[in-house]
Write a structure and sequence with these properties.
By secondary structure, the protein is an alpha/beta fold. It folds into two domains: about 200 residues, NAD(P)-binding Rossmann-like Domain (Rossmann fold, 3-Layer(aba) Sandwich); about 35 residues, no CATH class. Helices cover about 45% and strands about 15% of the residues. The protein has a seven-stranded parallel sheet with strand order 3-2-1-4-5-6-7, sandwiched between helices. Helix 1 links the parallel strand 1 and strand 2. The termini are far apart.
């Protein structure tokens, strides 16, 4: 007979979140901490310290670590600091990412390198140093932020599409490699989400902000923009025991945008 369990309870678990100073990363840090996780918030933006402080003021456990996820030594030191503070890592949310909205013709090499490095190299480096700690603790869950445009193409977003497509397939490879260590690896693939990054995309493309947001919400069955909490809820599912037999999956959270 099945009995009801509190499978979303993250008490005692440590979650590492990159890109955590704003947007999806911040929304997810707030949500996971509300469900009991101790959150290690990583970002280059020092605003992350203020946001971590707000979470602590609510009686939850949050710590900010300023780190460039593209720097091997910086990532190594940061992950070691998290281990020293908390003793374990159970959840890794590889969320840091940037975009430059250009075609391959218009992209500068440095812009291509920047987008690829933050999104794809950052995911690689964080995973490289977290996985041994996670495995030593008995396993855990890694969630990588892909995109609907990692599963289909998009206009004037060549580098971004390349990164997100790479993340989706890197996720599958990691799931195969580390399943025997009881580590699950999945990707979430958001559609347009109401964040500063989406507003910046509109500016890059030369659109007026409000009209760009309105247009971004059109054409999907659930005709609105996503929220950081919408995406965070999917991360919560993948971080929790509710998804304990889910790995190698690419979960789309986009209001039906690519349906």
């Amino acid at each position: 007979m099945l009995h009801r369990k509190d499978v979303l309870n993250l008490d005692g678990k440590v979650a590492v979140i990159t890109g955590a100073a704003s947007g999806i990363g911040l929304g997810t840090a707030q949500l996971l901490s509300a469900y009991g996780a101790k959150v290690a918030m990583i970002d280059l933006n020092p605003k992350g310290e203020e946001e971590a402080s707000k979470i602590r003021e609510e009686g939850r456990d949050a710590e900010f670590f300023r780190c460039d996820v593209t720097c091997l030594e910086g990532v190594r030191e940061t992950v070691n600091s998290i281990k020293e503070k908390y003793g374990r890592i159970d959840i890794l949310f590889n969320n840091a990412g940037v975009t430059v909205r250009k075609t391959v013709i218009d992209l500068e090499e440095k812009e291509w390198d920047f987008v690829i490095s933050v999104g794809l190299k950052g995911t690689f480096l964080m995973s490289k140093f977290v996985i041994p700690i996670m495995a030593a603790g008995g396993g855990g869950s890694i969630i990588n932020t892909g995109s609907g445009w990692g599963l289909k193409g998009g206009d004037k977003a060549a580098a971004y599409c390349a990164v997100k497509g790479g993340i989706v397939n890197l996720t599958r490879a990691m799931a195969i490699d580390h399943g025997h260590q009881n580590i699950r690896v999945n990707s979430i693939n958001p559609g347009d989400t109401n964040t500063n990054m989406l507003r910046d995309e509109g500016r890059q493309l030369g659109f007026e902000e409000e009209s760009f947001l309105i247009d971004s919400a059109k054409g999907r069955p659930i005709e609105r923009l996503g929220t950081p909490e919408d995406i965070g809820s999917a991360v919560l599912f993948l971080a929790s025991d509710l998804s304990k037999w889910v790995t190698g999956a690419a979960i789309v959270v986009d209001g039906g945008g690519i349906a």
